[in-house]
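User: I'm writing a short methods note and want a consistent example. For DUF1772-domain-containing protein, I'll paste the sequence; you return only the structure tokens, no commentary, since I'll be parsing the reply automatically.
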Amino acid sequence: MAGQLPSYIPIAQIVGLTTSAALSGYIAGYSIGTIPSLKLAPSGLLARQWQTAFDVGKATAPWLAFIGGAAFSYLATEASKNPSLFPSNGFGLYTTAAVLVPSIVPWTLLAMRSTNNKLLALAEAAELDQEGMEETAFMANYVQELVSRWYWLNLARAAMPAVGAVLGAMAVVRL
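Assistant:
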């Protein structure tokens, strides 16, 4: 290392690494911990419970993605301005992390939109029908299939900030 890192660089590294790693675990936790429990419920209740979990995630995850992405963007900018303070691949690692972490938002809006919209419509229908949606075999299978599809799409979404965290860590430890 050619020079001493200013104190704000390690702070940005900590913020970028912790928010992106925490975000990945938070998102994956929905698939791994929440969905299997929800799938035990009848289809109407399952759709409503899924919507509650979805609404919580929608209100919190984008902020973590923004914070992590902003920290990595800042580090990429600093790496391009002061390359002697960073590993030779620091700019590329931080830039890629800065793109990956907030990519959960377009992934949600593009890749998951169809599944999300179908589940949200089912949750709304179940909410309007307080007695519960008619629990036919078709409806039960349809909701289960949608939630299973969402499970895998969500795990793919969790991978984005996870890879961003790994790339950021590689830059921090100079790999």
